[in-house]
Amino acid sequence: MVVAPAAHAQERGRRAYDLPSQPLVDAVRALALQSGETVLIPSELGSDRRAPALSGRYTVEEALEYLLAGSGLTYARSGGSYAVTSSRPNEVTGGSDAHILVTGSRIRGAGPVGSPLITLDRAAIEQSGRGTTQDILQSLPQNFGGGANEATLGSGVRNGAGANTGFGSSINLRGLGTSSTLVLFNGNRAALGGFSGVFADLSLVPASIIERVEILSDGASAIYGSDAVAGVVNILFRDRFVGAESRFRLGTADGDYEELQASQLYGKAWTGGHLVLAYQYDQRGRLPASDRSFVTENLTPYGGLDYRSTYANPGTIVAANGAAFGIPRGQNGMALTAAQLLPGVTNREDARRYTDVLPRQRTHSFYGSFHQDLGARLSLYGQGNFARRSYDARWLPLSNAAVTVPVTNAFYVDPIGTRQPVRVLYSFIRDLGPVVQRGDVQGYNGTVGLTREAGAWRLDAHGTYGEQKERNVLANAPNRARLAAALADPGRATAYNVFGDGSFTNPATIERIRGSTRNTTSYRVFAAAGKADGPLFALPAGDVRLALGGEYRTERFRYAAITDINTLAPTAVGLSGLPGTRRISAGYAELFLPVFGPSNRRTALERLEVSVAGRYEHYSDVGTTTNPKIGLAWSPIGGVTARASYGRSFRAPAFTELVGEANSLYQPLLLNDLASPTGTSKVLGLFGYNPDLGPERASTWTAGLDLRPQFAPGLSIAATWFSISYRDRIASASQDYATFLTNRAIYGGLVTDTPDPATLARYYTSRVFSNPLNIPASDIVAIIDGRTTNLATVTVRGIDFDLGYSTALGGGALAAGIAGSYLTRFAQQVTTTSPSASVLGTLGYPVDLRFRGRLSWTQGRFNVAAFANYTGDYINRVPAVPQSVPSWTTFDLQLGVALSDRIVPGGMRLSVNAANLFDRNPPFVINPSAASTLAYDPEKASPIGRTIAVQITKPW
């Protein structure tokens, strides 16, 4: 029977329930009436079974899990309805797993009181049509694409993109940096990736084993400790699955980019225990830059400038007096004379032409979990995952530098007859081939623990170990030491020839100068934790509950490299100043207080709940911190909930953020300068890490309203205002270095005019100094500091919203909605002396509005779902004349059908998914960086284009 009208939404919120123990059919009926959902249960199934008492905040799915635990029954979802059935082919029943812990709280069933929580369940994941974990989470409006993601690697270092040494993918809530979003696996910290371990690599998490993702878009350091500043992403796996499921997916983007995915899931249950095993294989081809017109350094076709590299083939000779002479095309450099050179000409080459936008990737992922009762009150559990991802990418040339050709060179040409050495701006790509980065990333994470039921209290003790190793090789770079010897060689058969149009050097000589670098990083984390939670005493509105816990964690980062670039023989190098093992100890407490509820409701006080939490944390290298949080949820009438929260958060510097000059680059630059008579000035840029970094801290406020009006069944409205105030935030303004001189109101505190010669001499003699433009110290008029430092303040404010509506239509279920994030402020104060300036809606920062609309219809075995993805317009202030970048809207579509047993034994689901259905290119953006430039913004738009994928899911 249908026991209530439907109110289906893609992301269901939690609400409070207080149901006594009663016959199961009555409990399900009460759940349906209070939630506004449609639940079907045959009377014969629920008449002789009794449901336990249910008290706390749950989603409908979680409440059904709790009520049905141990009954031998299950439920299934079809369209906008739930149906209780007598068989349970794909879920485990009973056991201590019935005690539900929700992200944002350490108290079972309480949930994050007052804080916003977004839930993507298995059905929403399937309906999205997206095949990888990173794609699923990057579609969230609250996520900013800047930082450590595949497409941003090589486009700059902003938001930690430069630390992405292994083409990983992260999540960056609110645009506050990937290291400010805490990612959990089943509630536990995972090993981190990248240089120094600054982000959780989502590419190592197979999407096929995810049960749901819970996103707490609120600070939660009082609950989880460091890094939970912008929010928490908790990935929960399908640990209750029983049976077998095979999945196959094949996709392509216009035939020049293909993806393949295959997975197998297996689960088995027995009395008091269960086991789940899973494997997934992902394969993706490379996306060449030559297949995307907007991946270029020459922006003239779009109305921009020509940013092509001056390192070309044929190259350019710079004579002893600094004059440039282009090497002519169509000759081999064997008999080149000064008369053939092109005075005043600088040859250029698009370095992007030989690169890949996205690398070729191969990933093997394994997952396993188990649960076993060891008695009536003691249980053993564990879960672990292992993944190995290999990649291959054609890369931008390593730091270019002019080669010096002495007069002894067999092919030497002197443009002005001085018989002095000349410098040649030369590209080695046609000799050595494109620079190639190959490598692999391995991640391990495992947890083993015991739970003990002590009356109404539950005790949990567990240990977690994680490690992520990254190894990569950069090949096909010239070894400068051996190259210098080859350039000085007088023999025409063995000397290096940089004067031709093409490659005209002896292949053996080319092989001798071929260099490479090899890097290995390792991040390890070990944690031991204990927790107890349960009721303290009863109030008329329910039990006052408490959670107490302690944790001890160690973290370690290691780095080693072998470079064959600057010395005659390969040399082992390390990273000086790298801290040793970091040790963290913490204790926390959380109290849940139901003030008003069904038993003592008052006028305008149907329900009132308060949550208070606090956490003390001590770091062996950066000191101690205490972070509180308080949450409030108030329901004046049924279907209306107002909520609010306040908390303080903390993030310790990453390991490499503490090394200072060891991970820096000092380089002279030519920048636009409106105060200069020539319009430009020569400056010394400092990039890397400031040696005096400290921790960063934040305060977070939220206030929200959830509406599920009883007069409009199927309608749901949720809105959350948030405010995050960072102080001493660890960040870098280096990506905006080109505007330091033209925007002194913001960056003036990072500019030192007329530096003294002694300071310049110290920087010029540093081992991290590079001078590709050959600018002498005497020409430097200012020093700009683009190093990572503790910026004074960053303030982010905005509103998250989600509107949904569902109804019956045409014999099926129709659901529509829109979820988005509207930022009203994103401002930063770069130094204590500079004003707070808005960077909202500018290059390198989030836009003011981003949303994802949804529309779906399900009838029987068929479904169709469409999505609209909108990214607002913004301003690019890098050019001398600011550029207006238009908004970008794409559409996704999924068509699906579930084939019956009569067609395929056991059934099968087939779906066709289209992302960016109308193949819209990213908007044109003048996007230069220190190494290259692009005609689009990979932080806000995808370069892939339209992708069509077919997916088959077969249960066994």
Description:
It is a single chain. With 956 residues, this protein is mostly beta strands. It is elongated and about 100 Å long. The strands form ten sheets. It has a 22-stranded antiparallel beta barrel. It has a five-stranded mixed beta sheet with strand order 8-11-12-9-10. Strands 19-18-17-24-23 form a five-stranded antiparallel beta sheet. It contains eleven helices and 51 strands.
Spell out the key features of this protein.
single chain; 956 residues; mainly beta; 22-stranded antiparallel β-barrel; 5-stranded mixed β-sheet; 8% helix; disordered N terminus
Overall pLDDT confidence? 89
Approximate helicity band: under 10%
Poorly predicted runs of 5 or more residues: 1-12, 93-99
Approximately how much beta-strand content do the residues carry?
over 45%
Short description:
The chain is mainly β and 956 residues long. It is built from eleven helices and 51 strands. Helices cover 8% and strands 46% of the residues.
SSE blueprint:
Layout lengths: L14 E5 L2 E2 H12 L2 E3 L2 H4 L3 E2 L2 E5 L1 H9 L5 E5 L2 E5 L31 E5 H7 L4 H6 L42 E5 L2 E2 L20 E7 L4 H4 L6 E7 L5 E10 L5 E13 L2 E12 L2 E2 L27 E3 L5 E3 L15 E2 L12 E3 L1 E14 L4 E18 L7 E3 L16 E4 L3 H4 L2 E20 L2 E22 L1 H8 L19 H7 E26 L2 E22 L7 E3 L8 E15 L10 E13 L3 E13 L4 E12 L13 E8 L7 E8 L8 E12 L7 E17 L12 H4 L3 E3 L3 H8 L17 E4 L3 E21 L2 E18 L7 E2 L10 E11 L2 E10 L2 E3 L6 E3 L2 E12 L8 E8 L11 E2 L4 E2 L12 E9 L1
Parallel strand pairs: 3-7, 9-12, 35-39
Antiparallel strand pairs: 1-5, 2-4, 6-7, 8-11, 9-10, 11-12, 13-14, 13-51, 14-15, 15-21, 16-20, 17-18, 17-24, 18-19, 21-22, 22-25, 23-24, 25-26, 26-27, 27-28, 28-29, 28-30, 30-31, 31-32, 32-33, 33-36, 34-35, 36-37, 37-40, 38-39, 40-41, 41-42, 41-43, 43-44, 44-47, 45-46, 47-48, 48-51, 49-50
